[in-house]
Design goal:
The protein is an all-alpha fold. The chain has 2 domains: 108 residues, no CATH class; 45 residues, no CATH class. The chain has 7 helices and no strands. Helix 3 runs antiparallel to helix 4, helix 3 packs across helix 5 and helix 5 runs antiparallel to helix 7. It is elongated, with a radius of gyration of 20 Å.
Length: 180
């Protein structure tokens, strides 16, 4: 007997469950009742990341090489892998263990965003997207890389300067009101 073909029309990841698990740790008044509860949540988050990482990575690798969306999604995948490999020390405080779990939860939420968005943009990370645009341009730009005899930067690239300013603005966040 052969198994029925798997339909790719339906999402393979249970985004609602993944977001709910992550959300338990990403609220301002996070309170975990016991270390066993925290350990259970961390194990769930690990499982969610182990499912999401290959799905997001595969989709990202199909995007055009050099695109910001591809770079952003792959950055988030690498960050999730680093968080999966990190462990708080044996004698870590409860606060440190919760902070570790919150970082895992943040990666789960970010990978859910990438998985859900066909363009694989980071809707909640304009700073990251601006940084990646700058990172994609500057190392490849002769003007941005120009150095003097002492190794000091002398390059003057209008595009590089504009991308850096966009990055600085994104780090500050949106301007609210009319400035008064």
């Amino acid at each position: 007997m052969t198994a029925p073909p798997v339909s790719r029309a339906a999402p393979l990841l249970d985004l609602e469950t993944m977001r709910a698990c992550a959300g338990r740790l990403l609220v301002n008044d996070t309170e975990v009742s016991s270390s066993e509860t925290l350990e259970t949540i961390v194990l769930q988050l690990h499982g969610h990341l182990m499912l999401a990482v290959p799905e997001v990575e595969t989709a990202a690798l199909a995007l055009p090489e050099g695109s910001v969306a591809r770079a952003c999604a792959l950055f988030c995948v690498r960050e999730a892998r680093l968080r999966l490999s990190a462990q708080p020390g044996r004698n870590a405080s409860a606060r440190a263990r919760i902070a570790h779990a919150q970082r895992l939860a943040g990666s789960v939420r970010t990978l859910c965003d990438h998985y859900e968005d066909d363009d694989h943009q980071c809707p909640k990370a304009p700073e990251r997207a601006a940084y990646l645009r700058m990172l994609l341009h500057c190392p490849a730009c002769r003007d941005c890389r120009a150095l003097d005899d002492n190794g000091g930067a002398v390059g003057s690239c209008v595009t590089g300067e504009r991308l850096y300013e966009e990055y600085r603005q994104a780090r500050r966040g949106p301007v609210l009101g009319n400035g008064h």
